[in-house]
């Protein structure tokens, strides 16, 4: 069953209106008819309703709330900006894996520079996150943060926030050995191609938990996706 995100909170027993693009897709592409069951999502809550077509626009009569994402702790992926479309690829699949937020990080070794065109790129990231959340049947779209540097990341960490850094120079602490209590915010940092610079490692040393992901050195896009999935599962276990 196809899911659509709505801006306003649905109310059981009332109509929810789909925006123009979603309405067009539902009626002209999917060719749904009156009475079709539709899933709606808003800020982590999922609703079931039935389609009503009124003057060629799609409205959904909300029948019941069926699911709410539990408080499982917030996971924010801080991904080093990669070449070409690597950052978009990571965002797409990490959204499917359960991240709650995404912050692109302009590292010392990032080949691509998003600083002059980030507002345009940000809209693209928001669209990718929404589509990935729809596809994976999530009821929450990860928020897209500002473009940060490592300095910004360290400066903005709260006292109770946890920062996990996947680092090829770490040999002892494995990512699978981490444990979480299921609350608070966990920031996951993945470097760009070439990894983190010595300056960045020194800057992070007092605030971060450095972990290894095994003997292999993973590509930046592989590491971001795999580590997002692993941390989400560990955080869910901590909640249980």
Automatic annotation (TrEMBL):
<dbReference type="InterPro" id="IPR015947">
    <property type="entry name" value="PUA-like_sf"/>
</dbReference>
<comment type="similarity">
    <text>Belongs to the RNA methyltransferase RsmE family.</text>
</comment>
<keyword id="KW-0808">Transferase</keyword>
<keyword id="KW-0949">S-adenosyl-L-methionine</keyword>
<keyword id="KW-0963">Cytoplasm</keyword>
<protein>
    <recommendedName>
        <fullName>Ribosomal RNA small subunit methyltransferase E</fullName>
        <ecNumber>2.1.1.193</ecNumber>
    </recommendedName>
</protein>
<dbReference type="GO" id="GO:0070475">
    <property type="term" value="P:rRNA base methylation"/>
</dbReference>
<dbReference type="InterPro" id="IPR006700">
    <property type="entry name" value="RsmE"/>
</dbReference>
<dbReference type="GO" id="GO:0070042">
    <property type="term" value="F:rRNA (uridine-N3-)-methyltransferase activity"/>
</dbReference>
<dbReference type="GO" id="GO:0005737">
    <property type="term" value="C:cytoplasm"/>
</dbReference>
<dbReference type="InterPro" id="IPR029026">
    <property type="entry name" value="tRNA_m1G_MTases_N"/>
</dbReference>
<comment type="function">
    <text>Specifically methylates the N3 position of the uracil ring of uridine 1498 (m3U1498) in 16S rRNA. Acts on the fully assembled 30S ribosomal subunit.</text>
</comment>
<dbReference type="InterPro" id="IPR029028">
    <property type="entry name" value="Alpha/beta_knot_MTases"/>
</dbReference>
<keyword id="KW-0489">Methyltransferase</keyword>
<feature type="domain" description="Ribosomal RNA small subunit methyltransferase E methyltransferase">
    <location>
        <begin position="70"/>
        <end position="230"/>
    </location>
</feature>
<dbReference type="InterPro" id="IPR046886">
    <property type="entry name" value="RsmE_MTase_dom"/>
</dbReference>
<keyword id="KW-0698">rRNA processing</keyword>
<dbReference type="Pfam" id="PF04452">
    <property type="entry name" value="Methyltrans_RNA"/>
</dbReference>
């Amino acid at each position: 069953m196809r899911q659509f995100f709505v801006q306003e909170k649905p109310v059981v027993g009332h109509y929810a209106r789909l925006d123009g693009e979603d309405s067009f897709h539902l009626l002209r592409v999917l060719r749904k008819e009156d009475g079709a069951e539709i899933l709606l999502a808003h800020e982590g809550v999922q609703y079931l309703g039935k389609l009503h077509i009124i003057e060629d626009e799609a409205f959904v009569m909300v029948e019941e709330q069926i699911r709410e994402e539990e408080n499982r702790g917030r996971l924010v992926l801080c991904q080093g900006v990669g070449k070409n479309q690597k950052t978009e690829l990571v965002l797409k699949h990490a959204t499917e894996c359960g991240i709650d937020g995404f912050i692109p990080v302009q590292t010392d070794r990032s080949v691509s520079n998003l600083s002059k065109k980030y507002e345009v790129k940000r809209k693209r990231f928001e669209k990718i996150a929404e589509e990935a959340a729809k596809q994976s049947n999530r009821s929450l779209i990860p928020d897209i943060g500002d473009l940060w540097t490592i300095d910004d990341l360290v400066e903005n960490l709260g006292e109770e926030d946890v920062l996990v850094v996947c680092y090829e120079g770490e040999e002892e602490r494995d990512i699978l050995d981490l444990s979480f209590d299921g609350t608070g915010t966990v920031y996951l940092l993945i470097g760009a191609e070439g990894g983190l610079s010595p300056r960045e490692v020194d800057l992070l040393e007092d605030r971060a938990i450095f972990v290894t992901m095994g003997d292999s050195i993973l590509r930046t896009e592989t590491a971001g996706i795999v580590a997002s999935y692993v941390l989400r599962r560990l955080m869910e276990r901590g909640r249980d």
